[in-house]
Amino acid sequence: MTAHKPATSAGESAVSEQRSRIMRSVAQKDTKPEMALRWALHARGFRYRLHTTKVRGQPDLVLPKYRTVVFVHGCFWHRHPGCRYATNPKMRAEFWEVKFAANVARDSAVRAALLEAGWRVATIWECALRKPEKVAAAADQLSTWLLSETETLELGEREVSSPKGEGEDVSSCS
Ligand SMILES: [Zn+2]
User: Fold this and answer.
1) Within a domain: residue 11?
2) Whole-model pTM?
């Protein structure tokens, strides 16, 4: 169950409003993009455990059968490189810089430890899950990867091919 707090009062400053809004979205575990991916994966026949504390870093999904963990990362909070959603707040820039650096360092340490322990690691950025057709495409790519021998996967909106081809043709890369 996710508790939704009422909208902040008009008296609050814009800064703390922005901050608390971001904090709230970050605190949510079952975010919409993650749930969309879960359902798509489930529909493709994959079974997983959620947020298990038994695996380092408490990955969003764990698929023991495939010795795989999946992280669904918010682009802002986890600093998706080069992503348009990884914006830099102008207010309290230093505060955010410290937060971001800590997040990136922790993600990287967790990832290294998991790989070291023999897990395969997939990172799905939320920008790849913003539209239903993108979710389907991401789930397809994730499914293919799960059945492969490849150790890591990283999917952002740039990596996920949209069937309708949103202006970009990704069919010929060779
Ligand atoms: Zn992104």
Assistant:
1) no
2) 0.76
Ligand 1 centroid vs 110 CA: distance in angstroms? 20
Residue 24 maps to a domain: no
Question: Which residue segment(s) compose the domain that 74 sits in?
Answer: 38-50+67-155
Instruction: Return per-residue pLDDT of the chain as tens, 174 residues.
Output: 444 544 444 445 666 666 666 665 555 566 789 999 999 999 999 999 988 888 899 999 999 999 999 999 999 999 999 999 999 999 999 999 999 999 999 999 999 999 999 999 999 999 999 999 999 999 999 999 999 999 999 999 999 976 554 444 444 444
Q: Within the chain, how many helices (H) and strands (E) appear?
A: 5, 5
CA distance 33 to 41: 12
Cα-to-centroid distance, 153 and ligand 1 (Å): 14
CATH number of the CATH domain containing 86: 3.40.960.10
28 assigned to some structural domain: no
- 9 CA to middle of ligand 1, Å? 30
The total domain count for the chain is 1
Query: Alpha helices, DSSP H only, in 57-171?
Result: 75-78, 93-116, 132-146
Distance from residue 17's CA to the centre of ligand 1 (Å):
23
CA distance 66 to 80: 25
Q: For residue 174, report the distance from its CA to the centre of ligand 1, in Å.
A: 24
CA–centroid distance, residue 45 to ligand 1 (Å) = 26
